[in-house]
Structures are given as structure tokens and as C-alpha cells.
Amino acid sequence: MLININGTNTPKEEAGISVFDHGFLYGDGVFEGLRVYNGRIFKSREHLQRLYESAQVLCLKIPLTMKEMSQRLENCLKEDKTTNAYIRLIVTRGVGALGIDPRKCEKSNVIIIISDISLYPKEYYKKGIAIITASVRRNRPDTINPRIKSLNYLNNILAKIEAQNAGCMEALLLNDRGFVAECTADNIFMVKKGRLYTPPVHEGALEGITRQTILDLAEITGLETHQSPITQFDLYTADEVFMSGTACELMAIIKIDGRTIGTGAPGPEFKALLKGFQKLSAA
Ligand code: PMP
């Protein structure tokens, strides 16, 4: 475990930021979750690109160039001496006044946490999980655009609470027009008649790095891919459904709103993509 705040390593017990940081007060900030496999940060450039794009949309100035940020991550990793880890990179608006005015925050804070993460018990990776559709809808792009990976996750958290109240671990979020967007912190895929489908980002999905990796892998293996609007009907009648994300990696979804998906077990296309993903990440 390593915690670095604005370039200085800080023991866990002492690691903290001001209660006047607008990241804390208003969720005003951006973040990334990255994985380290065999000592290498997986898709580092893509994650940093997304971080800087999210910051750009929020008019949030990151006090490091992308190259400097990449170097800082590498230095932290070297110091931590871990070869397999999860990295949380956070940039907050910084300390300001009470009141949302972002101009009163002089300097953003850059926080790096190198740790591990385990979202689901191991056995679920073998058998898959059941999910429900949340009643809460994904933010419309003209509210908080879901493409911004911001510190404001209440939309997702409300859906997660619904899932837990229904005895599930995960929820599906639809967009305001009733099309499938994504899960609470993961992208969603379905396989039907030998083709792979995932919602396009304009339907409310984050442009997931794992999502893109899966699309690339599918293309390589000759599995036809489509980024097209998906409905609940499509998911209920799919051969396979699964989700993808940096923290969760790949997880099969075997039941949605009480409907068993396919055979009710992780399917062959999922297993092949999982194998390809493991090979790629370990390379
Ligand atoms: N959707 C949301 C809302 C997310 O927060 C994440 C990241 N946890 C994802 C999808 C998956 O993105 P990635 O593959 O880049 O981790």
C-alpha cells in the first residue's frame, strides 16, 4: 500500500485532505482506477487520456502534464514494489471556500493510492452473478455526462443500493429513453447468434478501457462487434451477457430481473474473451 498526495508519500493513518476540498464538499473532481499486472500499468495512456479529458470538460486544471503524471505513477509503483495492484488516481478541485465557486479553489490536489481491490467473492467469477434493473436512470448527457469520470457517483450508488435491497450485487442502469446504458461501475455486453453487442457511449455508457479491450479482442478473434442501442428485451433473450471494468475485470451475468440468461452459466464466448483478456493483461 502506498499513498502519495501531491508528490509526497504519506502513511495511511496520516493520509487525508482538507474538509474544504471541493472534491469532498461537492464531488468536484475526477478519478481513474488502473490495474497493474506483472509490474506494468495496464493501458496507462488510455486511462490518463480519459482522466485529462474528464478534467477538461470540468474546466479542472491538473497541475501536471500527462507525461509527468505517468512518471509519477511509475515512480510510486517502483517505490511500492508491488507487481500486481490496483491504483486509484484522484484529482480534486482543491481547497476552496464554502460555496461551490470553483474559482476559489487555487490548486487541485493529486492523490495516488496503490492498493488492491476485490469487488466480488471469487466463486462468483466462476458461476456469474444475478442482477436487477434499477428504477433510477443513468444521468442524461445534458445533466452530468456519464462520459465524465467524476467523483460524483450518487447516480451509480443509488442503483447499487437498489440492487442490494433486492438481494443482488449489481444493477443494470437504463438511460432516460429506456435503452441499456451500463451497470453501476462496469460496461455491459451481450452475445446473440454469434455477435457481440455493447451500447454506444452516447446511450449513457462510460467509454470503458476494458470495454475497448474486449471490442479489440473480439475483432481479432473474428467475433463480429456492434455498438448499437440495446433494450431489456435484447438482454433477456441474449445467449450470453457479461460486464467489464478495470476493478471487476470480466464477470458473467447469468440472471437479469429473474430471467435466466442462456444456459444460466458463463458462456463460451465469455470464456474465450476472458482467456484472451488474461493473456493480454499478463503479457
Ligand atoms: N462504467 C462506469 C460508471 C465506471 O465507473 C467504470 C469504471 N469502474 C466502467 C464503466 C468501466 O470502465 P473501465 O473499463 O475503464 O474501468
List the helices and strands and how they pair.
Elements: E1 2-5, E2 8-9, H1 22-26, E3 29-37, E4 40-41, H2 44-57, H3 66-80, E5 85-92, E6 109-115, H4 122-127, E7 129-133, H5 154-165, E8 170-174, E9 180-183, E10 187-192, E11 195-198, H6 209-221, E12 224-227, H7 232-236, E13 240-245, E14 249-256, E15 259-260, H8 268-282
Parallel strand pairs: 7-8, 7-14, 11-12
Antiparallel strand pairs: 1-2, 1-6, 3-4, 3-5, 5-6, 8-9, 10-11, 10-13, 13-14, 14-15
SSE order:
EEHEEHHEEHEHEEEEHEHEEEH
- Mean pLDDT across residues: 97
| Ions and ligands | 4'-deoxy-4'-aminopyridoxal-5'-phosphate
Which geometry do the CA atoms define? globular
* Fraction in helix: 25-40%
Number of strands: 15
Q: Outline the biggest β-sheet.
A: 9 strands, mixed
Output the number of helix runs. 8
Q: Looking at CATH, which topology of the largest domain would you report?
A: D-amino Acid Aminotransferase, Chain A, domain 2
What is the beta-strand fraction?
25-35%
> Which CATH C-level class of the largest domain is it?
Alpha Beta
Unreliable residue runs: none
Could you characterize what this model shows?
The protein is of the alpha+beta class. It folds into 2 domains: 2-115, D-amino Acid Aminotransferase, Chain A, domain 1 (2-Layer Sandwich), CATH 3.30.470.10; 124-282, D-amino Acid Aminotransferase, Chain A, domain 2 (Alpha-Beta Barrel). Helix content is 30%, strand content 27%. The protein contains 8 helices and 15 strands. Strands 7, 8, 9, 10, 11, 12, 13, 14 and 15 form a 9-stranded mixed sheet that branches. The protein is globular, with a radius of gyration of 19 Å. The mean pLDDT is 97.
